[in-house]
Every structure is written in C-alpha cells, then in structure tokens.
Write a structure and sequence with these properties.
The structure is a homodimer. By secondary structure, the first copy, chain A, is α/β, with parallel strands linked by helices. Chain A contains 20 helices and 18 strands. In chain A, strand 4 and strand 5 form a beta hairpin. The two termini of chain A are about 45 Å apart. Chains A and B meet through helix 20 of A and helix 20 of B. Chains A, B: It is an enzyme of class 3 (hydrolase).
C-alpha cells in the first residue's frame, strides 16, 4: 500500500507539490522562515503539524520555531498573544467572524498573522494559508477574513459495520470491518485531515439505514470504540454524529414501545444521551431516517415527525447535541397504476404542516431535489418552504445516479444550481443556500450535509477525478457563493500542480461532465431510467412499474409527468410565485425540467426549437460522442499527470465511452420503437 | 419438526391412507396375509420394509413372515425361489423386461408374485404393488409386466455446498449446509424412497455451476462423505452422480492446463475416476456444464465438445460410469443490437456437426426447448437432430420461469407436449421421447433428466401441489406415454386419499394451471418478459437490452422474432420437414408459437381469428380471472384436505391471484402504450 500509486492518489489535494518558480519560492521562504504558535492542544498541534509539513514539502524547509516577537508567522487564538490581536478584530470587508472564522493578515514585511476565535479557526487558517502557497498566490500582503456561511458542514457516511457501504463505489468502509471498528485509525486520521482542510466540521459515520449491528453503536460495549474515533476527528475540529435506529428503545433497550410520547422511551433516550456524552463529550448528535423506506419511526405510534424529533432533541439538548432529521419520507409501496399519488409532493406534504413545531436543536435535512439525487431535478420546495424550522440541504457526493465513479460527473455545477436557486420565499433573491444556512429566516442552525463518496480504495474515491466532488462539497459548505470553475481550478492546482495544460484540460472536462452525463442518460428532467436496485446503466422502464413512485408514463404519443395544478398532481403549487407559475406553464417551464412537470407529445417543440423526440436523439448521439472525447482529452495528458492516476482514470474513461453508447442506443431505440418517429439526421437507431 | 403438519406434507404420495372401504380392505388383507422375500441385501431390505410399512398403514396389519411355499406374497429376483419363476418370464403383453423391469402376477386365489431381474426391479415392483392398493385397485387377478422406457431416469440438483440452491424455491439443500455435508442423512434416505417409489434411478447432488467448494467433491477429503450419501441412495437403487468443474485439473490438481487432449490432464481424470470408484463402486458418472455461461470448458484450449466429453468418458469407462454433457451452450455476451445471432440456434449449431463423434458412454443432455425452460418454447431441434449420439432430454421441475412454486403450474402437460413432439427424424411418428430414450436410433443410453424442485421445506416443494411435478416427472421418466390427467389423478389419490371432490377439483386445477400461467404471462411463445436475474414477476423489457440473446423486438407496429429462413435467422431449418415448413409459414405456424418464429404486426390475425393485440389483452384478462378462480376452487376444499396443506397452498393462491393481476396490468399497459390500440371490450388498461 505504500507504493507511489498509493501515495499519489492518497494525498488528494494535500499533496503539497514543491514550488518550482524559484523567485516565488524564495519569497515564500522569507515569509515563512519561522513560526510561533502560542498554546497547546490537539487541534493546535494539528495546525502546527500541517503548517510544518506542508511548508517543508512545498519549500524544502519547515519554518523554525521562534518566539512570537521574532516569528515570521504567528498563529493562534485571538488574545493568546499580543501580536494576534483581540477578539474584536474583524476583516477588511466587515465579514462577520463566527466561531469557525479566521483572519490572515500581513502588512508589507510584517509577520504573517493567522488568528481565529477558536482553535478550530486557527486550523482552518493554517490550511487556507497553505492553499495560498499551493495555488501560487502572492503573500507579500495579506488581508483575508473568512467565516463559513454554514454552521453545520457535514458528511454522512452510509457505512455498515460489516464493512460494506450502501451506494459506495470506492471500496469498503474505512471505519468498520467484519462487524467491528477497524483496529488502526491512521486512515481515519488522514480522512479527518482532508475534512478539516476544506472546513468540514461534522461527520456521521454509519448508514442512515441502521441495521441490528449498528443499532448497538450507542450501547456501552461499542461506545469506547466510538470514543476512539471521535478523538481522532476532534483533533481536526470535526464532531462525530451517529445515525440511530428509531426502534432502539425496543431492540436495544428491551422496552415494549418506541413511542416518542411515552415517558419511558424519553427517559431511555435521555439516559442513552448521558452515557454517550460520558464517552464523547462533544458528541454532535443523531442523524435519523425515520418512517422512510421501511425504517421505523413515530408513524408506528400515530405520532408525527415533530413528536419524533423533539423527543430525541430533548434528550440531547442538555449536552449541546442536535437531531438531524431527514425529510426523505414518501410512500414506497405506491401502485404504479395510481397516477394521483406523487412522490415529489411527499416531503413537503409531510413536513410543511409541522413548520414551527420543531425544537431549536432539530435540523431537518432536505434532499436538494424532491425525488432522490437524480442527474436533474428541480430544487425541493421545502427549502424555502419552511420558515420557522432549521434546515440542512442534503447533497450526494457519492455518484449513485450519476455514474457511480466510473463515469466522470463533476457535481459542483449541479449543486451550485440548487444553492443559487431562488425560492422567492422572502421575495426575489431568496436563495436556497440561505434557506439552508439559516440566514434567510434567522435560524441559528443550518448548513449542508452530503453523502460521502469515499472508501478504502487507495485513492479514496475510485475515480481519481471524483476527489473533486469531495473537495468541492467542502468548499461549497463553507462558501456556497464560490464558483464551480474556481473550485475546479484550485482543486486541480492543489492535486496535480501548476501545469497550465493540465489545468485547462481537466477543468474543461470537469465542468462539462455533468452536462455530458445528463445528455446521454435522462432526457429533459424525467429521471429514473436506470436498472433497479443498483441504479447503474440504462433501463428506460426500469422503474416504470415499480412501487417507488418513479414513473415517466411514456406511451406511443408522448412522455412526462403532469405535475401541474391545472391537470396534474398539483406539485407546482408547493413553490412560491413566480416560480410556481413558471413551472405550471408549458411554455415558461425550462426545457431541462419539462418532462418533470409536464406530459407532452414527442412532437412538442422545446424552447430550443427542437421537438422532444429530436432532442432525445440529438442529446444522446452528442452525449455519447462527447463521452468518447473525454477519453481522447484525457489521453492528451499522458505524462502530465502521475502515471498511476492516468491509468486509473483512463480505464474508467474507456468504460464510460463504451457505456455511453449503450445508454445512447437503448434510450434512442426505446423511443424510436415507441414513437415511430425517425431521427431527422438518419443516424443508426436499432 | 415431528408435528402433524410436517408429517402430512413430508410423506408426499407415500402417505398410505388407511383403506376405508371395508370389503376392499378385507380382500386386501386376505391377499396380503403373509410374505416371503428370499435373499438379503440393502435393496431387498428396503423393499421388504416398504411393503411391511405400507401395508400396515393401509390395512392395519403388516403381512406375517412366511416360507415361500405358504406365503400369500412372494417377492424376489427371478430364480431365487421356484415360485418366482425363471428369468425368461415375460409379461402378458410381451413387454421387453430390462434390468429395471418387473412382473406382478396373481392367478385367482394364488399367491401374489413380485419378480424382477434385479433387486432394484423387486423394489420397483413393491412400490407398484403398494400403489395398486393406494389407488383402490382390485388385486384378485394380477398380470402386470412393466419395464422403463428410459434407461437413465435422473434428477439434477443445483445445490451448493453453502446450502443454497440455485433456482430453488423450497428452502435450503438437504445435502449441504455451511460448506459441508449435512450430518444426519435421514432426510436423504426419505428422499431416496421418494425417488425409488416413482422409478427414478440416478441423482446428481451438486449444482452444474461448480464453484470452488464443490470442485473439491472429487477430492479425497470429501469423498468419504460422498460415499456415505451414495450408500443411502444405493439402498433405494439410485446411482449417485457429481457435477464436475472442467477446470478441476488446474484448480484441484495444480496442473497448468485442463486441455482435454493433454495426456497429463487425461491421466489426472483417470486417476480421479479410479479414486472415486474406490469410495463409490457404483458411481454414476459426471454431469458437465462446460463452455456455458462463463463455465470453463474445452473451448479454452481450442478443442470441441466431443474432445472435451470423450476424455472424461475414457476416464470413467473402465468403471462403468458415464458422462452427461449438457448442450446448454450459447453466446451469453450477445449484443442486443445484433439481430443475426440467434440463441435458439446455438445448441444445434454447436453439437450437430459433432454427431457420431462422442463415446458410447457419453450422453448429451438437451433442454426440452432451445432457449431456457420458458413457459412455452418449441422442442429443441437437437432432439431428433442427432442420430448417432446418446441423448437425454432435460426438463425443469423447479419452477424457475413458471411461478417459482408460488404460482400453481403443473408441468406434466408441458412435458408431454415435448415428449410427444414428432421430430420426423425417421418419418412421421418419430417422437422426441424416443429420440431421448434411444429407441429411435437404437442407442443404449438414453433417458430423461430434470432439475429438482425440492429443498428442506417441511413439505419438500414449498407449494404443496408442486409435489405433483416431482411425482409426474418420475412417472414420465419411466413411461413417457403416461397421460397427464392419469398422473394427476393417481398423485391426488395417493397424496390426499380417495375423496371424489378432491380428485375432481385438484385434477382440474392441476390440468388447467399451465395454460392459466401461460395466459397471464408470456403471450404467443415470445418468452423472457420477466425480471432479470431472479426471473420472477413481469418485466416486458427485462431481457430486451440484455446480453443473453433474449429479445422480443416489440415496437409500435408489432412484435416477435423472425426465425424464418426466408427473412430471419434461419432457425426453422434446424427442424426436419414438414415441421420446418410449418414453422417457416406464417399461416401454418401454430398460434402459441407464432411470436417465437415470426415478427408480426399487432393487427395480424391469428388462426383463432383474433388479432395479436386482442389476443394479448384477452388472454391476460382471462388469465388473471382464472388465477382468481383457482383460489375460489381451492377454498371449496377446506376440510377435505389436511388443514396445514390447505393453509400453505391457500397463502400461495392468494398471492398468485394478486400477482396475476400485476402481470395482466403490466403486460397490457405495455402493449397498449406501445400499440395505441384499445381493448375491443373497453376493459381497464393503465
């Protein structure tokens, strides 16, 4: 495992390439000659180590320890040394500086000051400072003030204790193996570094589908192991959460019920919380998937989700923990013959009536779209729909429906669309990102959570370029206003170094990849044309007769789901005006979501001027061609990226090019056979 | 496990109900007062025990032991006592009496004589005699001479050593558990009884897909266990076979190759055979799935199937063993876009050129149809196509594609169609059953083999009525001319007793069940409209874009596979004339196979006068209604069949009725959406 292949992919964006521009290196060396870091703690130790190791790798020499008066770099918590300034310090642009924020300042020829309200802030400042050098920035003058937009910046793992990962495409769990915690935690430590380096501060380590083994994670025999892992994360400023089984009072506690209004149940959870906090004093809290896809929950007892979440919240509140309550609730035993029930409506219908009834330490975790991480969905109307409830937007880094880390699909542009979505909840400019952060409705808790794409593969993510999604999520969780192309470029620089050709080619590939993937898979927002269960590869009718509420209703005349108020399920009414009107209108509805909101004939003309059927043919032919070009473009980088990375990615691009043809042919054939309308350009359809 | 429920289902057709007609019981008692069975051996002991136990159960008293001169029943091998007569004895109808045949004779008031050439024949005579009493026959005068039509009457188990059963729907393996042989063999003994009671004489106990664990069944550490099981079967006249891994010389023997023409490989197998026969002196031989669905085989070494089979045959020949070589060979990595390759052609194309090149102790095992046990297929053209090669017809008792023992599907009528199929290989009347038995081409080895439907469920087969398929296969393997309704009636009598209502209702249900199942599932011979992998439930396009060579090519105009010589794959030419002409002709092709041989518009008129689309609608609506009637008819038997059996079956009939609606609606909706042609009767299609 210690060969070059491993090391190269393993380091991700913390590879710290040596600075090759000699004048620049000299200027860096001068500015980083020595360092002082008052105070001692595991988090400060981590920051100190990162600065030392990172600078040594990039400059050839680590900064010498010095006293604060003499040091060229002074890093620490405000007030811990006169040169760090007092807590009142704010940045040049007046940015609010919350507990995770930091400043990086340098006057000409003065010392470099990395200062923050908390030790975690100091660690973030250290990583940010290192990034300046990784990306070749000038550090002659510095005046950076930064604070995360989101208080909670979380990764959800869907790891099981047998070592498997639900929807994992990069090996086995780094936490569990064969029903137990792994013995050696060094990989978890390296993972915690990666999280901290992009400002992520929370992690839930087990699957939201909590099976028998994981139900025991809150039992005393396993809590010592939980505590060991929490210690590792704590050193990097990351709080540990656990997914819990709502039926744990029965399965673990031996009670007769898990009814949230039963005092014995509440007491059981309170006692559990107390025990957990004895082992993990900064325990983050619980992540809960309740009454969803056969998981137990308050519905069993005739209670609602507020009853269910608040009871857990009360158990955690005395200790500072929170409940992350997922809104992925719908009827998963739907009859495909029933066209009135609409899964897209479900989360809003369930949760909107409960707005304002959740405790302050509950956050509802809302998937970005109303269905389930499809390549294209509208934004969930719950984001901006709930005005008196803490919200988290849930994204999926692991590429369940977007190529499973065998296809390239840089998801940051997709996430950006969701974050920048105008909900109109407080009039124009009411962005979904601000509904999630809490800013829109002055909520204290808010943020982003995302399902991890990492496993024990040597390069963490299977596809080497899928690391960009992990990185990108962290960046957006800190700053949702960051641009997708900026994130791509800085990730490439940090990962592969400064070769302009690599930056240009890889950033082009990344930025086009979502569009490419969408174009040869699901047309016009309709989704779900995948093989059941594993969700890989084309199957147009794969979910058409299923119980999951996932239909496209294609017949020989047309396709799409009528979700209008006028003639369909009325889902469009869950949005604020004018958004709702736009979706309701066949002519105003954006092309890319047309089939999500409307059932139209194949001959319907899109805003683009093309018919629906010709759009399907064109996008699939072009998409497959563009997938083939990805391979050609990657091939142009041979020698310019590490050989092992080149090979690992190339193997996947070869597969993607071939598999895109399969997508193209199956989908085109399906619609040609159904519509009988030939391709205007006479290309081969089977 | 010893409660009544268990006992009732467990005994199958050997329940030996007490004779309730008192005069009849008295006549039986008089005729069976005492018994003499000269000789001693495990097989004769089994016969003696069966007669004693069976008569006691039916009559209240077991026959008393007596000397041959005084006994009312004399049973044994010809010549072992004067009253048994000499070997030259043949039956009244001049039936040839081979090694497994027997006679049962009685002159008025004379003793009952059960005599045979072999001890196994005596055992068969005993079971036959018991059946006379089970079915209430008069035994005042008896002159039965019977001999099996097939020399090999075999069951194939697809059991794995982990205890799972590939395509098993009745629990886990009775042979293996957790990687080892089961400890207690009593259930295997009871199974051997059931086999012998219907004249089955061969069994292969492990899956034709031979994985690593089962490859070791021919290794010395496992052969003692194999021998223990063979001993159990031997006592009931059943020879044990093993499925072998063609790559065993490499995986087990450590050789560099498994090339059949390599002398070292041949020597390795010869040595293995010798070892096996040291443990199992009457070992039957090897069953081989080679070069099929990713199994290794001679193709790897550029050899053909004759090379592959003959090498194994030479290893077994000195010991009297045979090679059963499966013909299920086709391209399982086909491209759905390629319409020239036709899986239906594959077995014939592979094996026909090798006719005459196989050793005399090789038998080719040919599935009844050219595809894979679909609810409706034509008969394989290899049956009757090979004139100089031993053949076995392979049937599937386990209901992989026919309802998985949750739907009722009595398969004997389907098998009868295959057995009675006129191949025209030697002119009119050249039945497939005689191609299989060897009679048609004067081959010494021939017979039937079938994939077992039993497991460790208390009632063996899951669905209580699925026992009829197990029984029926045994009966047809002995006598392919037996009628499906006779077999049904005798099975019902033996299983449930003589209640005329039960006999009438259950036999009606059994005899209609295949037709019912076909009518709500696959229309007009097209097949494969099932969910991939597990093969349960409707999925019209489930195999349409797959690699398995299984397509229906439905588009908005029509459906079916053109397998004609004139315009299609030419598969029809594999049959002898006039069969080939009939299939080639659109007008002469039987309706039920129309879409197997022809691609036609939905508006095409069938011989029945209906259009194809209306036939699809009608058969699916009627089929679902008839499935619901099965439940109602079964309900009429409450109290008339054992309560546990009633409940077990009822649960399945409830499911079948509901699932038939799902089949109906999915298939009708699919074709309505595709064709746009409404149902002539305006019934609901979604």
């Amino acid at each position: 495992m210690q060969d070059l292949t491993y090391e190269e992919g393993y380091a991700c964006w913390l590879r710290y390439h040596a600075v090759e521009d000699e004048p620049l290196r000299q200027s860096y060396l001068r500015a980083c000659a020595s360092i002082a870091m008052p105070g001692a703690s595991t988090v400060l130790d981590a920051a100190r180590r990162e600065l030392s190791d990172g600078l040594r790798a990039m400059l050839g020499t680590a900064p010498a320890p010095a006293s604060a008066e003499d040091a060229s770099i002074v890093a620490g918590v405000f007030g811990s040394d006169p040169r760090l300034g007092a807590k009142s310090l704010t940045g040049a642009e007046g940015v609010r500086l919350d507990e995770d924020g930091f400043v990086i300042r340098r006057s000409i020829d003065g010392p470099i000051v990395l200062a923050a309200n908390t030790e975690r802030g100091v660690l973030y400042a250290a990583f940010r400072f290192l990034k300046l050098l990784q990306t070749g920035a000038s550090i002659e003058r510095l005046d950076v003030t930064d604070s995360p937009a989101n208080r909670l910046r979380m990764i959800n793992h869907w790891d099981n204790m047998d070592g498997s990962i639900e929807r994992g495409y990069a090996g086995r769990s780094i936490f569990f193996r064969d029903g137990r915690f792994v013995e050696h935690l060094s990989r978890i430590r390296d993972y915690a570094r990666l999280l901290a380096s992009v400002g992520l501060n929370a992690v839930s380590i087990n699957n939201v589908n909590v099976h028998a083994a994981e139900t025991r994670l809150i039992a005393e025999d396993l809590l010592p192991d939980v505590a060991r892992v929490a210690d590792v994360f704590r050193a990097y400023g990351v709080r540990l959460f656990l997914s819990v089984n709502y039926a744990a009072p029965i399965e673990l506690g031996g009670l007769a019920t898990a009814d949230p209004l039963d005092p014995e149940v509440a007491e059981w959870w309170a006692e559990r919380a107390e025990t957990i906090y004895r082992y993990v004093p900064d325990f983050g809290g619980f992540v809960v998937k309740a009454d969803s896809e056969f998981r137990p929950g308050p519905f069993t007892y005739g209670r609602n989700h507020a009853d269910g979440a608040n009871m857990l919240a009360d158990a955690l509140a005395p200790h500072g923990g929170i409940v992350v309550w997922r809104c992925f609730v719908y009827n998963c035993l739907q009859d495909w013959r029933d066209r009135k029930t609409d899964r897209a409506r479900a989360a809003y219908d369930h949760f909107k009536p409960l707005d304002g009834r959740f405790r302050d330490n509950v956050a509802l975790q809302i998937k970005n779209g109303p269905m389930d991480f499809q390549v294209r969905e509208p934004v969930s109307p719950l984001l901006g729909g709930m005005t008196n409830t803490n919200q988290l937007m849930e994204l999926q880094i692991t590429q369940e429906y977007t190529g499973q880390q065998r296809h390239l699909c840089y998801l940051v542009p997709q996430w950006k669309e969701a974050l920048d979505f105008d909900t109109y909840a407080r009039g124009e400019g009411s962005l979904a990102s601000e509904a999630a952060s809490g800013a829109l409705f002055d909520r204290l808790i808010g943020g982003l959570a995302a399902v991890s794409n990492i496993g024990d593969d040597p390069n963490w993510t299977g596809h080497p370029l899928a690391q960009a999604n992990f990185y990108g999520f962290g960046r957006l969780a800190w700053d949702p206003r960051a641009a997708a192309d900026d994130i791509a470029r800085e990730w490439i620089r940090m990962t592969f170094g400064g070769d302009p050709q690599v930056i240009r080619v890889v950033s082009d590939m990344l930025l086009q990849s979502w569009d490419i993937y969408e174009s040869y898979t699901a047309p016009l927002g309709v989704g779900w044309m995948v093989n059941p269960n594993h969700h890989y590869g084309p199957n147009v009718d794969g979910y058409e007769y299923a119980k999951w509420g996932t239909y496209h209703f294609a017949d020989r005349q047309g396709i799409g789901v009528d979700r209008t108020v006028a003639s369909g399920t009325g889902y469009t009414s869950q949005y604020h005006s004018p958004r709702s009107d736009r979706y309701e209108s066949l002519s105003a509805c954006p092309d890319e979501l047309l089939l999500f909101f409307h059932h139209v004939p194949y001959t319907h003309l899109l805003a683009s001027g093309k018919s629906v059927i010709q759009h399907i043919y064109d996008s699939h032919f072009e998409g497959a061609d563009r997938a083939a070009e990805l391979l050609a473009r990657w091939d142009s980088l041979q020698g310019a990226v590490p050989e092992a990375t080149f090979r690992e990615a190339r193997e996947r691009f070869v597969h993607q090019a071939e598999h895109a043809k399969e997508w193209r042919d199956q989908i085109n054939t399906y619609f040609y056979r159904k519509s009988g309308i030939p391709d205007a350009h006479g290309r081969t359809i089977y």
